[in-house]
Amino acid sequence: MSVMERIQAEVEGHPIVLFMKGTPQFPMCGFSSRTVQALKAAGVGQMHTVNVLEEPEIRANLPRYSNWPTFPQLFINGELIGGCDIALELYESGELARMVAETQRA
C-alpha cells in the first residue's frame, strides 16, 4: 500500500481524523493542542488521530494529498476541514459541534 493509499484509508476509515503533532494526551505543538481542545469542547468522544511526528512518510505526503501545507489537519466524514484556525472558528460559531454530532448519528 502506498503512503497516499494509507492516508486515504485513514481519512475514509474514521468519521473524525486529526493528523497532528503528538497525541491528544501529549500534543507536541500549540496548534495541535488547541485543535484537540476545540474538538473535545465540541463534543467529540471518539476521534482517530495520527501522530505525524512518528509517521514521517505521512507527514511528508499529507500536504500533497490534502492540498493543505500545515499541521494539524482535521478531516470529518472524509473531507478536509482545515487546520487549527478553521477548527477554532468553527467551534466558536457552533458549526463544529453540529458537524461532530452528525458523525455520531451516522
TrEMBL record:
Entry binding sites for [2Fe-2S] cluster: C29
PROSITE patterns: GLUTAREDOXIN_2
Residues of the Glutaredoxin domain: 16-81
Any GO molecular function: 2 iron, 2 sulfur cluster binding
Superkingdom classification of source: Bacteria
Binding site for glutathione: K21, R59, F71, C84, D85
Keywords attached to this entry: 2Fe-2S, Iron, Iron-sulfur, Metal-binding, Redox-active center
Keyword Protease: no
SUPFAM superfamilies assigned: Thioredoxin-like
CDD domains on file: GRX_PICOT_like
NCBIfam families linked to this entry: Grx4 family monothiol glutaredoxin (TIGR00365)
Homology family: Belongs to the glutaredoxin family. Monothiol subfamily.
Protein name according to UniProt: Glutaredoxin
Organism this protein belongs to: Luteimonas gilva
Taxon lineage: Bacteria, Pseudomonadati, Pseudomonadota, Gammaproteobacteria, Lysobacterales
